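wait is this the right file?? whatever heres the structure
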């Protein structure tokens, strides 16, 4: 509970510092030709280069993370510390070093995601909680502890929001929340819960 409260407090401080330094104006990153080009399959169906590239990079990052956690000594230390801190310490794992490296890896992945978010849409200091909620929903939909479940949860949430936006612009976020609640009601463990083996 303490780390959660401290992190929440730090996020409020960072948000207010960003508001003071950069103002509340929305900004975006220039994607150039990557943001305007695309593949046209039919007159009604086209896929932009940037969304396709974003999806490919996301899958690549998740694949690298899954391989890292499953095949490397440090990845196994991450999983052992997460599963049982006391047992990991008995095996000689320094949990403080593991936590520091895990935080560094998480920040690197968040930086990649933040760059693509900035290329795809406008952003500002006050939008963090909304995207944090989307990330939480995607992880819960996919199943806690499942790397590929997170991808499935994100895709499910994205499809729900897109369909909601097609019905009415104001329904996009609500449709995602409703899908989250429905899945949570019928499968509280998520679509692809973590197994004992992996």
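ok assuming it is, sequence goes like this
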């Amino acid at each position: 509970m303490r780390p959660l409260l401290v992190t929440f407090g730090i996020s409020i401080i960072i948000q207010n510092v960003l508001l003071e330094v950069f103002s509340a104006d929305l900004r975006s990153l220039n994607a150039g030709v990557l943001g305007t080009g695309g593949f046209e399959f039919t007159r009604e169906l086209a896929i932009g280069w940037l969304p396709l590239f974003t999806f490919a990079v996301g899958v690549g990052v998740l694949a690298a993370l899954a391989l890292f956690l499953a095949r490397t000594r440090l990845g196994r230390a991450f999983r052992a510390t997460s599963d049982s801190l006391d047992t990991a310490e008995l095996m000689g794992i320094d949990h403080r070093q593991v936590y520091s490296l895990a935080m560094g890896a998480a920040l690197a992945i968040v930086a990649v995601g933040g760059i693509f978010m900035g290329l795809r849409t406008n952003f500002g200091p006050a939008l963090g909680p909304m995207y944090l909620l989307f990330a939480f929903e995607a992880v819960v939909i996919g199943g806690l502890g499942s790397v590929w479940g997170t991808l499935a949860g994100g895709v499910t949430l994205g499809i729900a929001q897109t369909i909601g936006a097609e019905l009415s612009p104001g329904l996009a976020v609500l449709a995602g929340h409703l899908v989250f609640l429905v899945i949570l009601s019928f499968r509280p463990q998520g679509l692809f819960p973590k197994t004992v083996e992996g």
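The CA atoms of residues 27 and 122 lie 5 Å apart. so i think its the right one actually
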